[in-house]
């Protein structure tokens, strides 16, 4: 947790951005896995963490816009709780730690919301993504649980996004810590990636490193020889010499700030010439994004320029043809990179995705696209100092997609299907780093850069 002033200032800033009414921020509860007392690892809601700091189940907060007051709700533990969980701080002390003087039992929440509704005051809440909170919102507001998401306050979403998008120095320090754990995870994967080892074994070690240094992984680890499947969580294979292993993995710091890195490395420690050719194209894309990313440019323009580097590289390899600018405008390169260049990162690995990508990654100026590939760009808007985003180009050979496009004669002016067919056994390459937008450019987050050039990767794998 940060000091109480940090949370006070954030709530004050939020109130200033809002017109009237009360703001209700719900924390998360425990989520049962297979019976009520056997729960998944607890994860607090990120906006609750941002404004109210505490990472424990059973709390909620209210900001009263006109009164300029904040309230904290939760129940003090019982003797039974103390017997099973040990002594716990009183709710009033928890509230004081985040700069709030007025705390109440959880049941008071309904009274306060009902009063606001009776007074015809607006009750602002964020889009719920957990079903128990949808039910709680129904109970508090009378809006049917299934309709609560549609009734979320756009004014509140926009205000929260504007605050959480620009990272404070204390948040950047936490992201750097999460990236340092990411360094340990990815360099461990490089050392363990040998023929005969299972994907599951390495994935399990990485998950253990994340929890041993911080809180847990920031998302379910992707570690696979079949990197052509973008989010492949199947770890059932034994590594084979000559294949590529793609590892997309990150950690949360103790305070739940995230990292997200991807490396693709040769099983056995030596890239083949064909792997080097594709790898160096993706690396050039990755490096170009870092060169271009600075305050004032749209990330959509960075994405499109990076796609041109990809398309030019694939043209040089004989897989694409024709005019590169036209190919990227038409979306032909998306056969190889059907995803976007990156997303915001912070207390969520896809930061604020629960609030709606159209508000987080887009605005009135830069609108989402519905073109295949570009439609998957999560972050398109103009960059500002303090944004933390990912830079994650990739090149994949997805046999089913290649066959489909070929059968449909898609982009035949730009794609050499005979040459592409020979890469159907290649797999996929993605290289991902997290970058902070600074006053005049950008920098990688974390103290050490995970090996990325062919020489660096082969060196660490053969140490
Ligand atoms: N690292 C997983 C993702 O960005 O979707
Ligand atoms: Mn990512």
Question: Overview of this structure, please?
Answer:
Helix content is 39%, strand content 13%. Helix 10 packs antiparallel against helix 11 and helix 11 packs across helix 12. It has helices at 4-17, 46-52, 79-85, 91-97, 108-118, 131-141, 154-165, 169-192, 199-213, 273-292, 299-316, 324-330, 357-360, 399-407, 417-421, 454-461; strands at residues 22-26, 32-35, 38-39, 60-64, 69-73, 102-104, 123-125, 222-224, 244-249, 261-266, 388-391, 394-396, 428-430, 433-437, 442-444. It is globular and about 70 Å long. With 463 residues, it is of the alpha+beta class. A five-stranded mixed β-sheet has the order 6-5-4-1-7, sandwiched between helices. The protein binds glycine and manganese (II) ion. Residues 260, 343, 390, 392, 432 line the site of manganese (II) ion (MN).
Structural class: alpha+beta
Arithmetic mean pLDDT: 97
Q: Please give the order of strands in the largest beta sheet.
A: 6-5-4-1-7
Number of strands: 15
Cofactors, ions and other ligands in the entry: glycine, manganese (II) ion
Low-confidence stretches: none
**Largest sheet data:** 5 strands, mixed
Please give the alpha-carbon distance between the first and last residues. Answer: 39 Å
Indicate the overall shape: globular
Number of helical stretches of at least 4 residues: 16
Strand residue content = 5-15%
What fraction, in percent, of the residue positions are helical? 25-40%
Q: Give the C-alpha Rg.
A: 24 Å
């Amino acid at each position: 947790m940060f000091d109480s002033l940090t949370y006070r200032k954030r709530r004050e800033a939020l109130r200033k951005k809002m017109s009237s009414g009360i703001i209700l921020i719900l924390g998360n509860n425990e989520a049962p896995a297979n019976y009520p007392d056997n729960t998944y690892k607890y994860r607090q809601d990120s906006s609750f963490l941002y404004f109210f700091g505490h990472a424990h189940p059973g709390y909620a907060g209210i900001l009263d816009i006109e009164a300029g007051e904040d309230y904290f709700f939760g129940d003090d533990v019982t003797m039974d709780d103390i017997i099973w969980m040990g002594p716990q701080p009183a709710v009033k002390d928890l509230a004081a730690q985040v700069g709030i003087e007025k705390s109440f039992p959880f049941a008071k929440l309904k009274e306060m919301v009902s009063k606001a509704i009776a007074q015809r005051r607006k009750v602002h809440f964020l889009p719920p993504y957990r079903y128990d909170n949808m039910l709680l919102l129904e109970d508090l507001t009378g809006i049917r649980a299934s309709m609560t998401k549609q009734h979320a306050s756009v004014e509140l979403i926009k205000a929260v996004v504007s605050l959480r998008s620009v990272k404070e120095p204390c948040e950047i320090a936490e992201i750097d810590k999460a990236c340092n754990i990411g360094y340990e995870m990815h360099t461990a994967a490089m050392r363990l990636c040998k023929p005969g080892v299972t994907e599951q074994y390495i994935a399990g070690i990485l998950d253990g490193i994340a929890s041993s240094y911080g809180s847990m992984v920031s998302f379910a680890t992707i570690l696979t020889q079949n990197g052509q499947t973008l989010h492949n969580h199947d770890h059932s294979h034994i590594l084979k010499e000559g294949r590529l292993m793609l590892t997309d993995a990150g950690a949360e710091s103790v305070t739940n700030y995230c990292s997200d890195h991807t490396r693709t490395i040769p099983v056995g420690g030596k890239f083949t010439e064909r792997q080097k050719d594709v790898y160096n194209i993706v690396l050039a894309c990755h490096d170009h994004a870092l060169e271009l990313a600075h305050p004032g440019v749209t990330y959509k323009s960075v994405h499109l320029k990076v796609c041109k580097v990809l398309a030019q590289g694939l043209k040089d390899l004989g897989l694409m043809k024709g005019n590169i600018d036209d190919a990227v405008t038409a979306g032909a390169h998306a056969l190889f990179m059907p995803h976007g260049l990156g997303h915001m990162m912070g207390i969520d690995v896809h930061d604020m995705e629960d609030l709606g990508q159209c508000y987080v990654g887009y605005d009135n100026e830069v609108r989402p696209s519905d073109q295949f590939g570009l439609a998957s760009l999560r972050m398109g808007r103009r960059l500002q100092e303090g944004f933390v985003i990912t830079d994650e180009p990739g090149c994949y050979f997805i046999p089913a997609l290649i066959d489909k496009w070929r059968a449909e004669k898609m982009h035949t002016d730009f794609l050499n299907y005979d040459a592409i067919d020979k890469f159907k056994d290649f797999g996929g390459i993605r290289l991902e780093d997290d970058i902070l937008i600074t006053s005049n450019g950008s920098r990688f987050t974390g103290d050490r850069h995970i090996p990325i050039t062919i020489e660096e990767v082969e060196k660490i794998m053969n140490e």
